[in-house]
Amino acid sequence: MATCIVFDADDTLWETDPLYEEARRDCIAIMVGAGIAGPERLDALSRQIDRENLAILGFSQFRFPSSMVQTYLAACEQDRTRERIDVAGQIFDVARSVFSKSAQNVDQVEFVLQDLIAQGCSLYMWTKGDEDVQKKRIKDSGLSRYFNDVEVSRDKTPASLSELLQRWDPRSEHSWWVVGNSVRSDINPAIEAGLSAILIPSAAWDIEHDTLLPHPDGAVFAVDGLADLRQVILPADNDDRVTAQIESGSAVYLFVSAYHDLYRQYVLDILAYPRGHVVRFPYDGQWLPSPARADPLAFWNMLAGKSALIVYVDERMEGQPRRTQRFYPLRLGTIRNAPAERAEVGGGVVHVEFELGPYVFYGDTAQKRSENAEAYQRELMALEARPRLRRDDSAYISIGPGFEGRIHSKQHPDEDDDAWQSVVSILGDLENAPPPVSRNPHMPKFESPFKNAMFYAVLSLKDLRRKKLVPLESILNGDSGFSLHPSCNYRFDLLFYHPHRPPPAVRRSKIQAVFTPDAISGVGPTTIPLNFRYDRRPIHFVTSRVMDSTWAQLNLCVEPPSDDNTDQPRAVAPEPTFLMKVNVGRREKYLAPAGFATFTAVAALGSALSEWASTTFPNLADSQKELALLLPIIGTLGATWILFRQYGRLK
């Protein structure tokens, strides 16, 4: 039995509600400019009049302009203000411009339609409204080529839907679904016609709001966006497709969002660490791909040695309005191991360790970055196991096809600067990305999770005495760090960048370098202000002489302004921690055994001299014997001191 899907158009395939809301605001602004007070009153009045006109003018393209003009006339009457013909004409023209403007297609609509067709679905479009307006929008969208048929109706009713089904499927041989954003026009007619329906909620026209009719269990679903349709319409083989892709996949995809502050910090830190640093990500068992949840140990064993792609998922932060889901790859890497011993079959937290590689490169220009971001989005949307807005279907770690040749990067470390800035430019401009799915005016305005972020990257650590870079090494149970010489000067080079002028919360903050006492200590300034868009800054430190190999840490953290007000937004920035091993110098390395051997020999020599003096000179006084013993000891210590003084001058 073939699967057929009937799509609504307005605010399902393309966005018309923003056009009406923009025109309404412009008309109200004209009224206010003409001396009519109370924008909120005018907004409510215009919606009331538009509802009343629906019974008279229906979905004619003259209804909305007439409603806005009538709003102006009614407000003038309420305020006892004389109407002005020129103002009424201006309002009519602005309101009517809604029908000449092109509506923007819903994000990823073409990818979703192509995917459904590839899965064997037949697609139909059923929209309502003024025929000329709807035909223009269909043409502007460029989507008609994906549909077997397109129907424009004056209104949507169960009877008209049944007539269409009789035409499209006269023998009732297919399984039918209706997809739309309106309970009144899409979902309830489908229920009455005995079809399954999927509601994509939006802040659409309040006239379209209605009470959902009684329906059988499993007949009506609500999803967050078009991208989730296949999970509902074709659920039977979801696990099979995911399993097949996992078993044949050659790359690991690690997803991280900014839903919580902790997750956002992961993103910032990933961008700050240099190549070769080992990062450990915790994943809860519930975010595994669905087939892997039954046997997480077997899944983790498949990860070791595979290439990895770290991807930021732009969804929403806690308490923020829902956004269209977007994927932004950040860095390449390699899975170090799959620590199956840490995986609990009951769904415990598992830590995935991976070594950071080159940054993803989006391009040198804004246009190129935008084009590559869209290309990367399409690639990641094709993953069977990936994060989804329906949380129970999400997988934040997955195995899929290799990304070589499809995800661009700069392979040479000297080119990391350009690639890093391209990634930061994308994250720093998220507020201009596709708008939130929810346009409810009572919801808080979306703010980018990186609005108050200052991005920086640790480029390298240089040994100033030897004039060479210090490589990252595996120095403690697989953890990466730097192996340092004692009593040497070192310099960390940091690259700072912000795509726009940093906000006040950032400009008033600093980066503070915190050193482990005794083993390493800062030289010169250890704080860096953040009141610039682009800069390179060094952090100097010196290692101490140690008698044994000593572990140390360097922490970079955000220091708020001294007059910090907890009510004001605070800056966020990477807070990387670097593990360091301060090695024993050559002088110190041999000092202890040489000293022990020397003093042992001196003690033995003194004992022998004392025995010899007692035997050879039995009449010597005790004080003379002690002097005879002390002189060779002093001579031996002096010779030892001269020896180590000369040795200490060696490098």
What does this structure look like?
It is a single chain. The chain has 651 residues and is α/β, with parallel strands linked by helices. The chain folds into five domains: 3-13 and 103-233, 3-Layer(aba) Sandwich (Rossmann fold), CATH 3.40.50; 17-99, Orthogonal Bundle (DNA polymerase, domain 1); 238-432, no CATH class; 455-584, Immunoglobulins (Immunoglobulin-like, Sandwich); 588-648. Helices cover 35% and strands 23% of the residues. A six-stranded parallel beta sheet has the order 5-4-1-6-7-8, with helices on both faces. Helix 1 (17-33) packs antiparallel against helix 4 and helix 2 (39-57) crosses helix 3. Mean pLDDT is 80; it is low at 317-323, 342-347, 435-444 and 646-651.
Given helix and strand content, the structural type is alpha/beta
Question: Which radius of gyration do the C-alpha atoms yield?
Answer: 36 Å
**CA distance, first residue to last residue:** 82 Å
Number of discrete domains: 5
Q: TL;DR?
A:
This protein is α/β, with parallel strands linked by helices and 651 residues long. 35% of the residues lie in helices and 23% in strands.
Question: What attributes characterize this protein structure?
Answer:
single chain; 651 residues; alpha/beta; Rossmann fold; DNA polymerase, domain 1; 5 domains; six-stranded parallel beta sheet; 17 helices; 35% helix; elongated; disordered C terminus
